[in-house]
Each structure stands twice: as structure tokens, then as C-alpha cells.
Design a protein that fits this description.
The chain is α/β, with parallel strands linked by helices. It folds into two domains: 212 residues, Alpha-Beta Complex (Quinone Oxidoreductase, Chain A, domain 1); 178 residues, NAD(P)-binding Rossmann-like Domain (Rossmann fold), CATH 3.40.50. Helix content is 28%, strand content 21%. It is built from 13 helices and 15 strands. The strands form three sheets. Strands 3, 4, 5, 6, 7, 14 and 15 form a seven-stranded mixed sheet that branches. Helix 5 packs across helix 6. The longest helix is centred in the last third of the chain and has 14 residues. The termini are close together.
């Protein structure tokens, strides 16, 4: 079968790989009908997340049809249509029973201390072959997979695999509730769904920050007030809009690949640029930019600083943008002296997806508006290149069986 395979930093390929097989009685084999490219996948190619194993199939977002189940999978059968959560979870360990499914003690082959197990990730996460392939082996299928109703399309369900639940998780982490004001940094796919999630949770004011006009336009359509940080200083603007107090909640939907302002009052000075370059070298020492592609963000700590500055005293910050273990910089002194609550982590997908499936099935939300490009599996490299250039929206990869 064909799959998108990580070969090295800055190098991926579509190639033929062996089909997956049942290895444990709790496994299932799913034939993928659609997959997608996430910003996290770009971290592996840009070199801002280390530890990838050559030959690993990429991708952690997928929808498909079950082809085969192990003997201990008692709630699904071949032919069932399912969405695959990006993170794997056993459903029986203490973290899973507490709802912390991203911290499952059993799913990661490296042991309970290894942390989140997700598809298409580095060696510390398994590695488990990913979902940008014609078929995939799903571990702990009985507790991970979520059945889809007939009135939820593949396009809708695909965003329930990771992007939407991650954004909803971020709003939850940030303490968004009725009447709250929220600042969201990053208007990419996760940021757009963070806006939608904040509205669903009752936020009365949502301020979104980015530098790409098309993303800001979409954020405005989704109900946010917008700030272009290449034109204005977002810290100063948010303080002004909130009468100097700051917002109640902040969601960081950017992470380590943040970019600094290239114009306007937020443009960094020479000393700040030097600090940014040193931090980039720390978090992405093996980066291999190629003709403008796979370039790491030039301001890894920018959103961490801005978040602390724009939230009110005693406010709450939710971090869902990806930061690698090599990232050790945080303005902890400023956060402590404002009595802030900081919550962060990998999304507990299995804890949120069933609720979001119900919202989509009932017509409360139609998440398909963020899909900007669709490519066949053999054109996946061009899709990656388009997403790498920070085009708006979210990229879907159509999966066609090998001839």
C-alpha cells in the first residue's frame, strides 16, 4: 500500500509499505477514507520536534472503515465507519479513567513515564505508524475508536480526529466560560476551532491575533475581533481594548514555530532578534530549510511572553501549541507575580470527541469551512509544501487504493 513516510529532517516521500496486520487482540485494521496534515507533522519535517525514526508513516488524523478486529474488540465489527483519535488510550488505566487519555499508562510502548502515544510521531511516542496511508493498525481499538453516524460526513469527521478536540481542549484548559473574554494567539486551523469552541462555551469577547490577512478574515467571520501583529502591537491593543485589565483567558494555538513581527511596533529590536536566533538553534539544531520550505519559526518563545502580558491578574492560560522537550524557556517570574493559572498539554482526544460528534450530527457546528485544499495521496508532498507556506485553512489528503 502507499503511505507518506518520514525519511529525514526536510525529507518525506510517498512510497510503498507493507500493509498493517493485527498484532494484539485489542487491535483493529482501518481502511482510511480520508486523512489530513496537521501543523504537528510540520514540526517533524522542520526539525522543531526531534526523535523521528526514518521509515515512520506520518499522520495522526483519520477517518475510515474497519476491515478487521482482534478477538478482544467487542464493540466494533468490520464495516463500521469510525473516526480515529490522534492519541491512543487503553481505557482502563488510572489516567484514562480520570479522563487524561493522552497520558495513558499502557498505550506507549516506552512505558508509563514516556507520556503521550500518538500516531505518526517520534520514538518517544511509540512510534506508531501514522494515518497518512491506505490502511492503519489501531491499538486499543475498543477504547479509542468512535463510531460515526451516517449524517456526519468524512470531511466533518476528519476534523474531529484532532483539530477540533484539541481546540476545545485548549478552551477548557484556559477556563473559558459564560461571560469571559478570551485572547487566541494563532488563527490557523486550531486557532479557528478555538474561536468556535470559545463561542460554544459562552465567551462574550474573543480577540484573535495573527499576521496573515486571510486567516484574520476567517477569524472575523467566526466571530472574533482581530489583530494583525505586523501592523499593531497585540499586547498594547489588547490592554487598550480591555481598559488596561487584560483578558480573562488566553489560548496559545501557535507553539514553537511562532514567527516574530516583520514590521510595525511589535517588530523586535536587535537584542530580541539575537535571543530569538539563539532559541531557534536550541529547539531546532537539525533544521534543513530547502528553497524556502521547512523553515522553523523565528520566534519560538514569542507567544509565551505575549500570553503572560495580555492576561489579567489571576487569569488563566491554556497552551495547546506544540513545544518540544528541548524548549526550556518560559517567563515564569512574570506569571508567578500575576498569580496566573497555567494549564497545558496534549489533547485528551477520547474524552472530547463523542461530544463533538454529537454537536456536528445535530447541526450545531459544521467544521468543514476550514478545509482549504484537497490532494490525492500521490500529491501529498505538494500538500505539505502548501501547508508549510502557512496557507490558510486545513489540508485534506484523499486516499485512493493502490492499483
Amino acid at each position: 500500500m502507499k503511505a507518506v513516510v518520514w525519511q529525514d529532517t526536510g525529507k518525506i516521500a510517498v512510497q510503498d509499505v507493507p500493509e498493517p496486520r493485527i498484532q494484539e487482540p485489542t487491535d483493529a485494521i482501518v481502511r482510511l477514507t480520508a486523512s489530513a496534515i496537521c501543523g504537528t507533522d510540520l514540526h517533524f519535517i522542520r526539525g522543531t520536534m526531534s526523535g523521528m525514526v526514518p521509515g515512520t508513516i506520518l499522520g495522526h488524523e483519520g477517518v475510515g472503515v474497519i476491515e478487521e478486529v482482534g478477538s478482544e474488540v467487542r464493540n466494533f465489527k468490520p464495516g463500521d465507519r469510525v473516526v480515529i483519535p490522534s492519541t491512543a488510550s487503553c481505557g482502563v488505566c488510572m489516567p484514562c479513567r480520570e479522563g487524561n487519555t493522552a497520558q495513558c499508562d499502557n498505550a506507549n510502548p516506552n512505558g508509563p513515564e514516556a507520556g503521550t502515544a500518538f500516531y505518526g510521531g517520534p520514538k518517544d511516542s511509540g512510534p506508531l505508524d501514522g494515518l497518512q496511508a491506505e490502511k492503519a493498525r489501531i491499538i486499543y481499538a475498543h477504547s479509542s475508536l468512535v463510531r460515526l453516524p451516517d449524517n456526519v460526513s468524512d470531511d466533518q469527521a476528519l476534523m474531529l480526529s484532532d483539530i477540533f478536540p484539541t481546540a476545545y481542549f485548549g478552551a477548557d484548559l484556559a477556563g473559558v466560560s459564560h461571560g469571559k473574554s478570551v485572547a487566541i494567539f494563532g488563527c490557523g486551523p486550531v486557532g479557528q476551532f478555538a474561536i468556535i469552541s470559545a463561542r460554544l462555551m459562552g465567551a462574550t469577547r474573543i480577540i484573535a491575533v495573527d499576521q496573515h490577512q486571510d486567516r484574520l478574515d476567517l477569524a472575523q467571520q467566526n466571530g472574533a475581533e482581530v489583530i494583525d501583529f505586523n501592523q499593531e502591537d497585540p499586547v498594547a491593543v489588547i490592554k487598550r481594548l480591555t481598559d488596561g485589565h487584560g483578558v480573562d483567558c488566553v489560548i496559545d494555538a501557535v507553539g514553537v514555530d511562532a514567527q516574530h513581527a516583520h514590521g510595525g511596533p511589535a517588530k523586535p529590536d536587535a537584542d530580541e532578534l539575537k535571543e530569538d536566533r539563539e532559541l531557534v538553534q536550541q529547539v531546532a539544531p537539525d533544521a534543513h530549510p530547502d528553497h524556502g520550505h521547512w523553515v522553523p519559526g523565528d520566534a519560538p518563545g514569542q507567544v509565551l511572553e505575549w500570553s503572560v502580558e495580555v492576561v489579567k491578574k489571576g487569569g488563566q492560560i491554556g497552551i495547546i501549541g506544540v513545544y518540544s522537550p528541548d524548549m526550556t524557556t518560559y517567563p515564569i517570574g512574570k506569571a508567578m507575580n500575576k498569580n496566573l493559572t497555567l494549564r497545558m498539554g496534549n489533547c485528551n482526544h477520547r474524552n472530547y470527541i463523542p461530544h463533538l460528534v454529537d454537536l456536528v450530527a445535530s447541526g450545531v457546528v459544521d467544521p468543514t469551512r476550514v478545509i482549504s485544499k484537497q490532494e490525492g495521496l500521490t500529491d501529498a508532498i505538494s500538500a505539505y509544501e502548501a501547508f508549510d507556506q502557512r496557507q490558510p485553512g486545513w489540508l485534506k489528503v484523499e486516499l485512493q487504493p493502490s492499483e
